[in-house]
Write a structure and sequence with these properties.
Length: about 180
């Protein structure tokens, strides 16, 4: 839309340029409304959900810093190449979809303590994390039940299970 408006202005068609400008502004507002209600919350909320309590503040800060760096390079790029930056922005959004699908496990309906168990897999892939979580759930039900009750399950620094029942000792063996 922006390129069509620029071309219409260059051709001397002010009414057509005005119509393209209104359409482009409308699309920007629609995009910002949808983006603000959905993806904009990710760098603020997801790190707060996935990091253990001991490192949650630092992890959340790093998530927001990453978001800020992303906004900064986009602004600098826009100044350098104009409206073509939006093509790069669109391509980055399209590339983000498979990354989120493959690397970001769903945290809905899980306690913060269960998130430690969700990230117990050695692999970064979501399907491996979910598989490991199911294995822990089936083989050591006390461990997952303890996490559901909100008990501290794993010491983030030492990686040791705090409660030493027989089923929790077997959790250490699985690591």
């Amino acid at each position: 839309m922006s390129r069509a408006g620029i071309n219409a202005t260059a051709a001397g068609s002010a009414s057509q340029a005005s119509a393209y400008g209104a359409a482009a502004a409308s699309f920007v507002f629609i995009f910002k409304s949808v983006f603000g209600a959905t993806w904009l919350t990710v760098p603020w909320l997801y790190p707060a959900e996935i990091f253990p309590l001991e490192v949650r503040a630092k992890g959340n800060a790093r998530g927001v810093v990453g978001w800020s760096i992303g906004n900064g390079w986009l602004t600098l790029l826009f100044n350098a190449i104009g409206e073509k930056t939006l093509y790069i922005f669109g391509a980055c959004n399209i590339l983000a979809l498979p990354m989120v699908w493959a690397l970001y496990p769903e945290s809905n309906q899980r306690t913060l303590e269960e998130m430690d168990l969700l990230f117990a897999a050695d692999s970064p892939w979501v399907w491996d994390a979910e598989k490991k979580f199911r294995e822990l759930q089936e083989s050591i039900p006390d461990l997952v039940a303890s996490a559901r009750r909100g008990n501290s399950v794993v010491d983030a620094k030492g990686g040791v299970v705090e409660k030493r029942s027989a089923s929790l000792k077997s959790a250490e063996a699985l690591r």
